[in-house]
């Protein structure tokens, strides 16, 4: 029996003589996947659940395997739902894309700053004009 001491600690057996092996993730061969998908698709609606129970599978397995088959994935791929590895880009291409994104960000910041300065300049000019007109106007005299 495996007991976990805390969420961050791996599960450990309290008995060092425990003969139970640590469970491992199942993997399926490409031939098995294709055979099960074909059997599942050819089965009547009432028999599909029986196939899944017999094999200890979930419907999501069948869906993933059928999608991989329809997409023309490699027949020997046993990725079991793992994301397909994308080819890596050269380091200079990655750096170039990073620099382009930084350039776009800085260009948009510059445009915002220029707009803010333009607004500030107009506000300053308006306040100067109001100040000058207030100095020219004589206050109304009371009689």
Descriptive notes:
- This protein has 143 residues and is mainly alpha-helical.
- Among the domains are: 30-70, no CATH class; 88-137.
- Helix content is 57%, strand content 0%.
- The chain has helices spanning 30-42, 45-55, 59-70, 91-136.
- It is elongated, with a radius of gyration of 35 Å.
- The N and C termini lie far apart (103 Å).
- The model is unreliable at 1-9 (pLDDT under 50).
Q: Which word captures the global form?
A: elongated
How much helix is in the residues?
A: 55-70%
Number of helices: 4
Average of the residue pLDDT scores:
82
Radius of gyration: 35 Å
Poorly predicted parts: 1-9
Q: Would you spell out the secondary-structure blueprint of this structure?
A:
Elements: H1 30-42, H2 45-55, H3 59-70, H4 91-136
What are the key terms here?
single chain; 143 residues; mainly alpha; 4 helices; 57% helix; elongated; disordered N terminus
Question: What's the quick description here?
Answer:
The chain is mainly alpha-helical. The chain has four helices and no strands. Among the domains are: 30-70, no CATH class; 88-137.
């Amino acid at each position: 029996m495996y007991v976990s001491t805390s969420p961050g600690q791996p599960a450990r057996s309290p008995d060092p003589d425990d003969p139970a092996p640590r469970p491992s993730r199942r993997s399926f061969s490409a031939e098995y996947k294709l055979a099960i998908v074909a059997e599942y698709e050819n089965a009547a609606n009432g028999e599909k659940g029986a196939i899944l129970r017999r094999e200890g599978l979930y419907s999501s397995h069948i869906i993933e395997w059928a999608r991989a088959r329809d997409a023309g994935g490699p027949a020997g791929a046993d990725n079991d739902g793992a994301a397909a590895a994308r080819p890596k880009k050269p380091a200079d291409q990655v750096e170039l894309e990073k620099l382009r994104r930084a350039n776009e960000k800085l260009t948009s910041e510059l445009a915002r700053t220029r707009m803010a300065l333009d607004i500030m300049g107009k506000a300053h000019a308006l306040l100067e004009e109001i100040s000058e007109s207030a100095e020219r106007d004589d206050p109304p005299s009371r009689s």
